[in-house]
Amino acid sequence: MAATIVKAGQRKPLNVLGMPLTMLCEASETNGNWSLFEEDVPIGMGPPPHRHDWDEAYYIVDGEVDFSIDGDTVTSCKGDFNYLPRGTIHGFKGASEVPARVLIFASPAHGSEFFHDINEQVRRIPDDLAKMPEIGRRHGVEFMRPQS
């Protein structure tokens, strides 16, 4: 396996639900062991509550993010770190006027393919959001039903 060197601006961000997500190290570059992404999270934007069969860790590089973690709300700010083991029900939304910048580590690296599919198939929001549950099922992601 060869070393991976990614220079700033070298990789074009994906559009994941209207948020730029840059693949810094993909599954194919780590033999599927882990992956690392950088995401810009504008205020009020983020994924709905969901769970999946891989671990995730979030490091807040800049700004603030409101996380929902197994029903609890946690506000994470620049320099904060959150580790969420597989199966944890979670979602998040940007909470600062300037988009938050977040590093997301996933192990094993199932997230890469999921994010590529979202980028390709969910282009118009809210029109394409109905595709999300099926895309999620294909990649081991279960979206929670909204509470009424």
Key phrases:
148 residues, mainly beta, six-stranded antiparallel β-sheet, three-stranded antiparallel β-sheet, 2 helices, 12% helix, 41% strand
3D structure, described in words:
The chain is mostly beta strands. It has 2 helices and 11 strands. Strand 1 and strand 2 form a beta hairpin.
Largest beta-sheet details: 6 strands, antiparallel
Mean pLDDT across the residues is 93
Shape call: globular
Helix/strand class: mainly beta
- Report the count of strand segments: 11
- State the helix count: 2
In short:
This protein is mainly beta.
Secondary-structure topology with pairs:
Layout: E1 14-16, E2 19-25, E3 35-41, E4 50-52, E5 55-62, E6 64-69, E7 72-77, E8 81-84, E9 90-94, E10 100-107, H1 111-121, H2 132-138, E11 141-143
Antiparallel strand pairs: 1-2, 2-3, 3-10, 4-11, 5-8, 5-10, 6-7, 6-9
